């Protein structure tokens, strides 16, 4: 079997690693890939939005299955392009990927189908947004409608911050066309939990829970990032919470998308807030989270290809999804200055320390292979993941493994998973 993965980050590396464990998979390609992926797959210099070249490559190499792992190509219609060419591709079509591609769409969907979420209003005109804020309750949340690399969310403590936020998103276009529309949402308090799920259009099978750390600095300070680390499972995601979410959020979302004529086949990431009134949806993503995938997939017992094919063939209900009875923690090693300004091109030392170490992994995100070795090539550089019998052990193992790697400008948060101390 030949598999092509579309993407270049840590999520794509863990996917390639997971797929490589299937003995029937003979060749893995990744477009464009990164320095770490290059060690287990053949990286192809094709951009994630160049569907024409991707399809031509898949035909030339007789690819059996393409996995579109990133948000931009999914929302842009990569799966539609492969299907139009008679090729198999895993992920939602563009009309279903809008669940992530437009926050306004997803909020309206939740309102229509009574899926629990925060109160909100959508705006196309910055003047109307500013007028609305005059009578709003603070703190309040501003969200760019479109894709913004996980950074298009501003939490505003007062009216002046909110006014500045409207200008940043809608007028200054800091997040590009993602800010053409704005969602203003009530601020929810509680524990955040991420739940990834496989979906075949009608059936939803959830994976083990996880929790991300979005802010750049310790104590959840600083700017929003693509994610600075994760742990799995979340001790706050109880059996009672799961039962509620299965009925009123997960299945309700899949049913709603089907009812709208947008059947969803692929991965739905449910970002949840566990409020005093019960679980509510913070956001949807139409693909694996990054770095959530780095703690969830190493704990998954099932073969990835088997589950993906069940989704595509509408028989997910026949899969018994199983996870190891342990825990995992991922600490992201970033370039100092991320997510604003940072240097790259620094040699990375110590990657060989992870070879043949059971339960320890290093997944590459912003790296590049050069004749001199692997160098930094992005804001989030590596995800260091470790397993343990429980969360505290996994956390200790992950931070020990962080010491095995060094590069100039290396930065990471020191408090990933600290919330588990409160349990």
From TrEMBL:
Any idea which UniProt keywords this protein has? Answer: ATP-binding, Ligase, Manganese, Metal-binding, Nucleotide-binding, Purine biosynthesis
Name its pathway: Purine metabolism; IMP biosynthesis via de novo pathway; N(1)-(5-phospho-D-ribosyl)glycinamide from 5-phospho-alpha-D-ribose 1-diphosphate: step 2/2
Using the record's annotation, list all stretches that form the ATP-grasp domain.
107-313
What are this entry's molecular-function GO terms? ATP binding; metal ion binding; phosphoribosylamine-glycine ligase activity
What are its GO biological-process terms?
'de novo' IMP biosynthetic process; purine nucleobase biosynthetic process
Q: Give the required cofactors.
A: Mn(2+); Mg(2+)
Q: HAMAP family in the record, alphabetically?
A: GARS (MF_00138)
Name used for this protein in its record: Phosphoribosylamine--glycine ligase
- Annotated source species: Diplocloster agilis
